[in-house]
Design goal:
The chain has 243 residues and is an alpha/beta fold. 21% of the residues lie in helices and 20% in strands. The chain has a single domain, classed as Collagenase (Catalytic Domain) (3-Layer(aba) Sandwich), CATH 3.40.390.
């Protein structure tokens, strides 16, 4: 039985006004951890990342059993401005590795593995020529039921040549690709936006020199994986889980 989370996360990624200027667990399995800060939800920006049939929110996330989280990422059709196709792909991988570096001190079992092509990889990165709207990309968490087990992954759709916010063609630079992927990969991991904090999930940045993945992002992910996988906000199991 295969399925996708009813609420597919992939909100605003990176709007381009011009070509070179961005706009603004408890059941975690082996290696489970205890983190007091992560249990203080007021200290994070954790929000539900899926929606049940009756509209009640809930949480799904990767676990230690999903590691290493395999990411299939090929080469873009068009390289970023002032970069090669290899450098563009490399910047995208670096952005995801920033999450790995930030998360591992708190969640030691979190590991990523990158391949150029694997249709069975949990996370798929798809390079697009154009994405509808003035966005550079979208990212979202997804799930599938494998026998009795909930397996979580996600998908990224990224364009190096998005339609700009004012209807003008744009071409992202390598640094903009890094910012974009860092933000969208947070959605793949199950995190939502945080518009009033210094976070990768705040898309309203005004400088490329900002910190990309912060301790707050790592703590929010840690808080997510401390929740029993497939749990609603009312502490009931999500209805799509095997009984």
């Amino acid at each position: 039985m295969l399925g996708r989370a009813p609420l597919f996360i992939g909100i605003l990624a990176l709007a381009c006004a011009q070509a070179n200027e961005p706009s603004a667990s408890r059941d975690a399995g082996p290696g489970a951890f205890s983190l007091e800060a992560a249990t203080d939800l007021d200290a994070t920006y954790l929000q539900p990342n899926v929606e049940d049939k009756d509209g009640i929110g809930g949480y799904v996330h990767v676990t230690a059993a999903d590691m290493p989280l395999r990411v299939a990422i090929g080469y873009p059709r068009v390289a970023a401005r002032h970069g090669s196709r290899e450098e563009t792909r490399g910047a995208a991988i670096e952005a995801m590795q920033m999450w790995e570096t930030a998360i591992q001190p708190t969640v030691p079992w979190f590991r990523l593995e990158f391949v150029e092509k694997d249709p069975d990889a949990a996370v798929q990165v798809v390079w697009k020529s154009r994405i509808t709207g003035p966005w550079g990309g979208f990212g979202g968490i997804a799930y599938r039921i494998d026998g009795e087990r909930l397996r979580v992954g996600g998908k990224l759709e990224i364009s190096t040549t998005p339609l700009g916010a004012y209807g003008k063609d744009a071409r992202l630079e390598v640094d903009e690709i890094r910012l974009l992927i860092a933000h969208e990969f947070g959605h793949v991991l199950g995190l939502m936006h945080c518009l009033d904090c210094d976070s990768a999930m705040n898309y309203a940045w005004h400088t490329r020199g900002r910190i990309i993945v912060t301790e707050l992002d790592a703590l929010t992910f840690a808080a997510l994986v401390e929740i029993s996988n497939g749990t609603r906000v009312d502490d009931r199991p999500l209805s799509f889980l095997p009984r």
